[in-house]
Amino acid sequence: MAQTTLTLNRTGDKMPIVGFGCWKVANEDAENTIYTAIKNGYRLIDGAADYGNEVEVGRGINKAIKEGIVKREEIFVTTKLWNTYHSKDNVRAAFDKQLKDLNLDYVDLYLIHFPVPLKNVPIETAYPPGWYQPGEDKVQLERSPLHELWPEFEKLVDAGLARNIGISNMNVQLIMDLLTYAKIKPSVLQIELHPYLQQSVLVKWVQEQDIQITAYSSFGPASFVPLGVDSAKKAAPLLQHDDISAIAKAHNKTPAQVLLRWSVQRGCAVIPKSSSEDRMVSNADVTSWSLPEDAMAKITQLDLNLRFNDPSGYGFNLPIFS
């Protein structure tokens, strides 16, 4: 039987293994895009405060609910705390702002977006605030340790506002430390994952801890070229890669489907985004078939340990993956 969900620790919630990502969905398109994705069968919507489109994403979700396409409990909504709200005094206000923007009573999964405690920017000053203080061009950190942040996430669970909590862009060392004091273990780790960055050791270890993995940027450099990321501009596009294209042709699939299936077959959830309804439908069709071992082995050979979503690559002087 095809695997279509991942079971989360503690709650036993079934997280869809294929979701729809909200990063870089334009505000003017977001409501209709999310509504269309849900109409076409997507049941996991992955957003974040930093994407700046949660009001519109919430409208799309609520439109689908209002029209009876889905019930609220049939939608798995993920969002993320931004770096400027890591202080234990700022988490709840930031979360409340997000929940109000989404116009929901709870979220299914709340993640720490990056393990980077940036100096707070008040919500009324700038929202979402990005990486810099208003008017500044250098990153400023604050003393907001993870061991004080995580209990605030656990309070959201206790209050029934977040069914599950998790992390993103963290390595084994940080996760190992977190597990020594967490009363509620993270349910999910979300990381950049594609054939150029396979992170096999991290994936295996995290899954052994009963923490599920969501892969983002499954298409590799495609989303990062417009952002001017040097490594992305120099990398061969995965969607046009000869090996990926050959595998796709051999199995009568698209290159995008092959890339998504590769992660799904490793037991990881995927969250592709597309503005095209046809591609939405195609991208979702990755659970009813599988890649043979020789195709998986061929893709394994593409690993370059090449990361695109690295704060250092944006000039922020935050080598968090070094």
UniProtKB/TrEMBL annotation:
Family, per entry: Belongs to the aldo/keto reductase family.
Active site as annotated: 51
PANTHER family the record matches: ALDO/KETO REDUCTASE
Name under which the protein is recorded: NADP-dependent oxidoreductase domain-containing protein
Tree of life domain: Eukaryota
Keyword tags: Oxidoreductase
Pfam family name, one: Aldo_ket_red
Site (Lowers pKa of active site Tyr): 80
Species of provenance: Mortierella isabellina (Filamentous fungus)
Binding site for substrate: 113
PROSITE patterns: ALDOKETO_REDUCTASE_1 (PS00798), ALDOKETO_REDUCTASE_3 (PS00063)
Gene Ontology MF annotations: oxidoreductase activity
Domain named NADP-dependent oxidoreductase: residues: 20-302
